[in-house]
Specification:
121 residues; mainly beta; 5-stranded antiparallel beta sheet; 4-stranded antiparallel beta sheet; 0% helix; 50% strand
Length: 121
């Protein structure tokens, strides 16, 4: 499996922003996304760069505080170790609040091989 070397995270905030840290969980490990540009106030767009160097099975974002945060969309540009670029865009239906997370990246499980049922004749 290819490792995600680094990624650019772009988050567009809707009507209700947040002053709290943006939390990124990669394979369940909690990181704080540092803002390179922009912000998370109402109508703002935040840019963040994360160095991962790991095979990613799950990537979620949330915020570290009470209250709701309206996220219009999240874009991820992932630079894989192989040199390939992965692009993902998610537009959540609900705002972030009450511990909710936006699932950005989820590997699909390997296909289940079908075992024959019955006897060959």
């Amino acid at each position: 499996m290819d490792k995600l070397r680094e990624c650019r995270l772009i988050v567009r905030t809707g009507e209700q922003g947040t002053e709290h840290d943006v939390i990124v969980k990669i394979n369940g490990v909690r990181l704080v996304a540092r803002k390179l540009a922009g912000g998370t106030d109402s109508g703002e767009t935040m840019l963040s760069k994360l160095f991962i160097a790991s095979v990613v099975h799950s990537l979620t974002i949330s915020h570290a505080g009470p209250g709701a945060w309206d996220v219009d969309y999240v874009e991820v540009f992932g630079l894989m170790e192989s040199g390939q670029v992965e692009y993902l865009k998610v537009q959540p239906e609900e705002n972030l609040g009450d511990g909710r997370e936006i699932r950005i990246w989820k590997d699909t499980p390997p296909p289940v091989s079908e075992e024959p049922t019955g006897f060959a004749v």
